[in-house]
Amino acid sequence: MRVLVIEDERRIAADVTAALSAAGFIVETSGDGEDGWFRADSEDFDIVVLDLGLPVMDGLTVLRKWRAAGRRMPVLLLTARDGWREKVEGIDSGADDYLTKPFHMEELVARVRALTRRAGGHASSILAVGPVEVDTRKKDVSVDGRAVALTPLEYRLLTYLILQNGRVVSQSELGAHIYDQDKEHDSNAIEVLIARLRKKLGIPVIETRRGHGYCVTPTEGAAS
């Protein structure tokens, strides 16, 4: 899952990046409102962590411009302790949640996980497709109760597909949402990753739609 953190305080940005990366997210950062607005307006992120007190363009303006343009990704606001008016304005402007500074990184990670689940229509921290279960809090995966050891990349791929609720996802979209943007990957990397993940799961839960991409389905007999 791809996260954009827009925060001008470098220490906070670095701490948030480290915490979300450790939780399995692909994190990118921006230090001012105008740059952050442009990036999330022109690229697809699964969630944005947005500070309100930004230089160049303030966070509320950024949020309003996204919503006016039809950008619907979840947004978690970071606000000052005494900024209750901004909290109200932020929620009214389309924010999905807010967190008051200073905050515990564990709470921020939990809120980001919850927002990405809800965006995919999942209320619980357990994502399930047929006999496959993914515990997004512990990052554990099981099939019929049997634990399955996945690499971080395999885990991100499976989680992203499940959160799409059966929507067919192209190779290019998968690559953008599961790979670190600073790392190179060749054109058949997704195919290799899918094959490896299918072998570990041992059931045909990942379906190939030729010429279109991949989706997860709880029905048996998915195409290989």
UniProtKB/TrEMBL annotation:
What keywords were assigned to this record? DNA-binding, Phosphoprotein, Transcription, Transcription regulation, Two-component regulatory system
InterPro entries on file: CheY-like_superfamily, OmpR/PhoB-type_DNA-bd, Sig_transdc_resp-reg_C-effctor, Sig_transdc_resp-reg_receiver, WalR-like, WH-like_DNA-bd_sf
Q: What is this protein called?
A: Response regulator transcription factor
This protein's species is Phreatobacter stygius
| Record-annotated Response regulatory domain positions | 2-116
Per the record, the domain of life is Bacteria
DNA-binding segment(s): 124-218
Locate the 4-aspartylphosphate modifications and list their residues: D51
Question: Per the UniProt entry, what are the Gene Ontology biological process annotations, in alphabetical order?
Answer: regulation of DNA-templated transcription
Q: Where is the OmpR/PhoB-type domain positioned along the sequence?
A: 124-218
Q: Does the keyword Oxidoreductase apply?
A: no
Q: Which SMART domains match?
A: REC (SM00448), Trans_reg_C (SM00862)
Query: Which Pfam families does this entry report, sorted A to Z?
Result: Response_reg, Trans_reg_C
